[in-house]
Amino acid sequence: MKPTPVPTATPEPEKVWVVDVPAQEEQGHWEEDGYWKSDPAYQCNQCGTIYTSIEGIHEHLSDWDGECASYTEISGELYWVSTGRFWVVDVPAQEEKGHWGYK
Known about the structure:
This protein is mainly beta. The chain has one helix and five strands; from the N terminus they run βββαββ. The chain has one helix spanning 54-63; strands at 15-21, 27-44, 50-51, 71-91, 97-102. The strands form two sheets. A three-stranded antiparallel beta sheet has the order 3-2-4. A two-stranded antiparallel sheet has the order 1-5.
């Protein structure tokens, strides 16, 4: 008597992820956050000299024997006050792209 042939199973091919386009990190840069500010200054109304302190303008007015008699408060030189930094995204992150294939 002959043995009955047993069908042989063909193994399923293994599925794998094939990367078509790799993931890319976000690209960007840091920028400084803050604002412009100025401290008051004092300008003589007669000769135009500018002082950064109230004491300075008072001394100036007392030294001029009445030629310079008044002043105006003005904005001093502007300067930057930093309050921190923030991230600006130039190119957003990209997930990898691909497809399922067989090994």
